[in-house]
What does this fold into?
Amino acid sequence: MFPMETTTNNTLLQLQNAKLASRKLAKATFDKKNQVLELIAHELLSSKDLILSANEKDIELGQKNNLSVALLDRLLINEKRLNGMAQGIHKVIAQDDPCGKILSSWKHPTGMSIQKITVPLGVICVIYEARPNVTTDAVALAIKSGNAIILRGSQHALHTNQAIVNVIHNALHKSSLNKDIVQFISNKEREETIKILEAVNYVDLVIPRGGEDLKNFVLKYSKIPVIGAGGGTCHLFIDETASEDMALNIAVNAKTQRPGVCNAIETILIHKNIAGTILPNLEKVLKEKNVELIGCDKTQKIISVKPASEEDWHKEYLDLKVSIKIIDSLNDAIDHINKYGTKHSEAIITQDKNNAKTFQEEVDAACVYVNASTRFTDGEEFGFGSEIGISTQKLHARGPIALNELVTYKYLIDGEGQVRK
Amino acid sequence: MFPMETTTNNTLLQLQNAKLASRKLAKATFDKKNQVLELIAHELLSSKDLILSANEKDIELGQKNNLSVALLDRLLINEKRLNGMAQGIHKVIAQDDPCGKILSSWKHPTGMSIQKITVPLGVICVIYEARPNVTTDAVALAIKSGNAIILRGSQHALHTNQAIVNVIHNALHKSSLNKDIVQFISNKEREETIKILEAVNYVDLVIPRGGEDLKNFVLKYSKIPVIGAGGGTCHLFIDETASEDMALNIAVNAKTQRPGVCNAIETILIHKNIAGTILPNLEKVLKEKNVELIGCDKTQKIISVKPASEEDWHKEYLDLKVSIKIIDSLNDAIDHINKYGTKHSEAIITQDKNNAKTFQEEVDAACVYVNASTRFTDGEEFGFGSEIGISTQKLHARGPIALNELVTYKYLIDGEGQVRK
It folds into this structure.
């Protein structure tokens, strides 16, 4: 029989075990890693009843604890969602191996060969909220990138996550990979999380996946490098040469197709020369989608909207609300975006190729769009398989955090006795 | 006339100006950046008298303040060293442009084109000790990588650095690049440094270049991402099949060629099957170079050395001292290195290709050598031109921090009205 008790209260021991196991995992072949992921996807579906009944427990407890409808919806797993989780694993299987890529290689003047090659980071810790699909996404990305993983999920998803991890451990047990590469931290004390965040000898990277509070908590306590998904105060700039139909269509899509996500827009900037004609139509199409509009002084003179305050330009509404500003030039649009944006996703609608180029060059953001919706910023849309968030920082990972962002590199130098003069 | 007063007490204003100027610098062409660097190298040499006399002031003050001989030597600029600084700039000129490289590009199913392209980080701050050559190295790397730079040097080098920055500003003035891209912070208060480290809106990366105290200070206060050169507790593992001559030669080179640097070795691990024959000879060649040897219990039974304590295995002596340990197997050697090493540079001497491969795969370090000295870990030796330190962290930059480590990337997406379904 397989071990079903997969947790221990000794968090530090779990981290040590992950670190030890990561050394051999790093050498697992492409085929081996994919076989294990196939097995996990298969076991996930064949353990449907176990997982759904564990999820029912969490949902019941969540209802007793008065979790919000939105939170309960995120927590819920049904058959369709379980299939989606298995499909997510298959999308990771379909990706190239991020490890072992020779980034460059050359000869030193003394004849030594030097290779710069991608290798796993070692041990990754993901700290996340009550979304059980993150458990399988994170495990799939970690195994494929050759990293051991520490899972620190929400207490609200404890039974579900435990059931999923049991399934994963059973699959690892059937393969020859050490099950220590996947560690589930079930102890609910906040101090346990801090203990992880200080374990610089055992964990190489921490990824908080969730809201601002979680991210700030991790950044405050972590002594380990953090890649955090940042907020998205994204902009759409409608340039004076914009096609009106295209601008309206993209504005509606980028604001309303899914308003609660980080790549939705929060502010529309409009060139003064097109504002008079486009604004009434923009108001119409957005109001049809129940979007609340606020605007700058000039906007208020053209359509009837409440004023936007200085604070509004910073805000990520994550809701059916948008701020509108009329600006004098491309340069002013870029200034506004670089001042108020969060370096996530920014778009220009224009028919002027020079303006498009300047916008892409000078806007400081992970993804800069010309004549397309910001909603495409997404690991899956970009063809990376699953993602574990969108990074708005500039070091190591920018934009979707997927397989290629979960590796580092090392230099391998081969000589025949060379010494330095 | 050129402006000779290049500093201001308003640090924040300097940071803002650097950020503003960085937007245009990021668009400077390869040729333009190289022309400016040529001009700086030229002006540096033609301003020899100014720089050397400023340096004399710092040396005099340093002698009055009883700086150590080693520190005064680092601070000193003579004609030969000034030529070396100019040559350093020419080595950067000879490098490829790290910006504008298309890392990948593809079509989205909707027809949009997506490009992942390298771009400057924006504004880099280098905080360093009394080594004036860092001023020119850092400026050359920053300009070539399209980044504005904030220079925060040691107070002991104030006159020298100011003179060098004046020369650089004059060269920028003659070119059409805004001199705001190079900012020199002369205010000596510690609070000014902290002010910089908190300026997340204006500075994108901080690089401390100096000893552990400086690095720890920066890590403690910085809210900006830091890439710090870590210490180097580097190892040489002499495997049982090692060529004895090669092992002795490399041991002497890696320990004594320049003992005070991070890529020198601090511990020699010897396979038990070769220890009896090689240890007496190793003792002889190292003692000829005045190296103090300490060792484990087994070592003490073969040669006469003082015992190494548990603490010794962690130590970076940066001096003519080495600890020796006899180990039972390749696996034990890797365990020891991964436990006590600082992930910098590690070497194996072996004739066994499988052992070489296992060592390179399983040792967790920036640079892993087979049959060569660890002393080669260096930006210039690797052919990267100047470097600004060696990173022992795994995210973004590992090993030499040179031009390619001073850029990030962004995704440029070009559509024709695409929206997300």
User: Anything to note?
Assistant: Residues 11-228+401-414 of chain A form a domain with the Aldehyde Dehydrogenase; Chain A, domain 1 fold (CATH 3.40.605.10).
